[in-house]
Amino acid sequence: MSLPTSVDFAENYDEKYAKTYGRFRIERITEVVDNFIGCGDYSQGIARIQCTNPECKAEFFRPFSCKGFYLCPSCSQKKTLLFSEYMHEQLLLSLPHRQFVWSFPTRTDWQKRKYRML
């Protein structure tokens, strides 16, 4: 008996797994994988980056990225760093932040249901 391939999995997903796990978005997954394969490939397109300083005039070429958040490690890291920088610089106040979690023993569940004001 041979192991199932990804093509077999995609073709048989609806009848075997859809009821349990939900709809399989093969089109979106295929698109993300195709973009990941072309990420950083100079033949897929490039951007020319030049320094605006008239004395420097440095320039280089940068290939387009796939912008895949979970699949591509470099694009995922870039989005994570940009989001954390946004949180630090613009969203959060420059105050110490703390998080408190209150938990109660399960023995007190009946009291919480009976006395709602607690």
From TrEMBL:
It holds the Pfam family Zn_Tnp_IS91. Residues 12-103 form the Transposase zinc-binding domain. This is Transposase zinc-binding domain-containing protein.
